[in-house]
Amino acid sequence: MTDPDLADKPFGCAVCATQACLRGEIGRMPTTCPTRTLPGIAREAKPYLEEKLHAEMLVADAAPFTPEGRLRSRVEELAFYAKGMGMKRIGVAFCVSMTKEAQRLGRLLRDEGFEAELVCCRVGSIDYDEVGLQKAHPDRFAASCNPLAQARLLNERKVDLIAMMGLCIGHDLIFQRECDAPVTTLVVKDRALDHSPIEALR
Ligand code: SF4
After folding, report:
1. Using CA positions, which residue lies closest to atom 8 of ligand 1?
2. Dihedral (C-alpha) 178, 182, 187, 192: value to the nearest 10 degrees?
3. What is 53-100 written as a DSSP string?
4. Binding site membership of 20 for ligand 1 (Cβ less than 6 Å)
């Protein structure tokens, strides 16, 4: 099944028309499918049997549906996952434009028995001038996003898990790099498409 000559070709997923991986149909996979060209990586299942990873996979697998078969929303999945992993303290790093929704999330999490710690992107009230960024109106104060402080404040509170809500692209990367706890994205900011980036791809 493996053709070593194809191992350094672009992964077939970029142009695949079969998605045969979904059904385990190896014969229908394109010749550049990484399942075929790099099976040592693509078909490595053993790590999933190790205790920590296995526990994470079990909870993730159970997250989409309630026991009654109803689909969970992503907010419900977040709470389900955190509970299943025994997490107690959830951090929420949010964009100031989503304050109302983030605060609602905080209340929902508390209702579910978690401690919730929220930090707004403009925390610290640092002016654009202080970080060397240009302002549209140089005579007025303009608060810079402060992803470093968002991360460090949540580190200070030793949260078990962090949900990002609407951090700008780039700021989200700085934020994640600085966080001690694992970070999951709850809301992706897309100003043009009501925070639904997939709409640009349909
Ligand atoms: S069958 Fe292979 S190439 Fe196609 S989507 Fe699945 S993994 Fe990618």
Report:
1. 13
2. 40
3. HHHHHHHHHHSSB-TTSPBPPHHHHHHHHHHHTT--EEEEEE-GGGHH
4. yes
User: What pLDDT, on a 0 to 100 scale, did the predictor assign at position 74?
Assistant: 98
Domain with CATH 3.40.50.11840 in the chain: 87-201
Q: Is the CB of 6 under 6 A from ligand 1?
A: no
Question: What is this structure's pTM?
Answer: 0.94
How many angstroms does the Cα of residue 166 sit away from the middle of ligand 1? 31
How far is the centre of ligand 1, averaged over its atoms, from the C-alpha of 59 (Å)? 25
Q: Which CATH class is domain 87-201?
A: alpha beta
Spell out the residues 6+ positions from residue 46 whose beta carbon is closer than 8 angstroms to its own: none
Q: State if residue 1 touches ligand 1 by the CB under 6 angstroms criterion.
A: no
pLDDT by residue (tens digit) across 151-182? Answer: 999 999 999 999 999 999 999 999 999 999 99
103 lines ligand 1 (CB under 6 A): no
